[in-house]
Write a structure and sequence with these properties.
There is one protein chain. The chain has 3 helices and 13 strands, in the order E-E-E-E-E-H-H-H-E-E-E-E-E-E-E-E. The strands form 3 sheets. The chain has a 5-stranded antiparallel sheet, with no helix packed on it. Strands 2-9-7-4 form a 4-stranded antiparallel sheet, with no helix packed on it. It has a 4-stranded antiparallel sheet with strand order 6-5-3-8. Helix 1 packs antiparallel against helix 2. The protein is elongated, with a radius of gyration of 33 Å.
């Protein structure tokens, strides 16, 4: 029995040409949560001394430029004494060279003596620059050194500051402890935990499926069934010769602090 559709439904039928479109495959990678590149810092002391005050505790949130600890250092005292000495030497050499020029102009001084005064001034300037650069390497503010000597306020106390805004995730220092200028002696680690990265390995055969700015989903065992949105930040340029994989990094928002570095993902 042939059944005809009602007249009013005929106009609702639509037709289209069947077309083939590629289906984007889903690529599942295994990785781990990590600190974001340039969003964490391992901080060591640039000089030797004794810790007299620790102002940051483990878990504290600190702003960029906040003081983490205070060190009393004889390095600063010695460097500043040398700076004052060289400043005095340069001032003396400057006056001597000016006087030599005046005497030479009146033919009261030999040319070789004028040249000697000029060479002494050049050496004094070089030594002054060296002494100043030593203080700058000890993190003495440049604007303080530009003041006249009588107005400079430089002490043996050095304040070590955080280079970025973040959370203190490691602390390995106590008041009274002696610290050195060894970069391997890490006193604090400060990290921005609001934005982390997930680092994963992708095989060569799957590399064409991954692109920078691609959106992905992150899953961790701690929150089963929960997806964390991520965006591919970078794709490595080197293949690991042992695993034949390339590193892929993806940014993930972590303002709720649910993800922790070193979690498997």
């Amino acid at each position: 029995v042939a059944v005809q559709p009602p007249p009013q439904s005929i106009g609702q039928i639509e037709t289209a040409v069947v077309d083939f479109k590629p289906i984007q495959p889903e690529l599942v990678l295994v990785g781990k949560v990590a600190y974001g590149e340039d969003r964490y810092s391992k901080i060591s002391s640039p000089l030797q001394g004794r810790v007299v005050e620790v102002r940051a505790k483990l878990g504290d949130r600190v702003e960029a430029g906040a003081t983490l600890l205070v060190i009393d250092s004889s390095d600063i005292t010695a460097a500043y004494s040398e700076f004052v000495k060289e400043a005095s030497e340069m001032e003396y050499s400057t006056r001597a060279q000016e006087l030599a020029k005046e005497l030479y102009a009146t033919k009261a001084l030999a040319l070789k003596d004028l040249k000697q005064a000029e060479n002494d001034l050049i050496k004094a300037r070089a030594e002054f620059r060296r002494a100043k650069e030593r203080l700058l390497s000890l993190r003495i503010p440049a604007q303080e050194l530009e003041k006249p000597l009588a107005q400079q306020r430089i002490t043996s106390r050095f304040e070590m500051k955080s280079p970025l805004t973040g959370t203190v995730v490691e602390r390995a220092v106590t008041p009274g402890q002696s610290v050195g200028s060894d970069a391997g002696q890490v006193l604090f680690t400060v990290a921005d935990l609001d934005r982390l990265q997930v680092v994963a390995d992708v095989y060569e055969r799957d590399l064409a499926l991954v692109k920078v700015s691609q959106v992905g989903r992150i899953n961790v065992e701690a929150y089963p069934g929960t997806d964390f949105a991520s965006v591919v930040a970078s794709i490595g340029d080197v293949v690991d010769p042992n695993t034949r994989t390339i590193k892929v990094r993806a940014w993930v928002d972590n303002r709720e602090q649910r993800l922790k570095p070193e979690m498997f993902a």
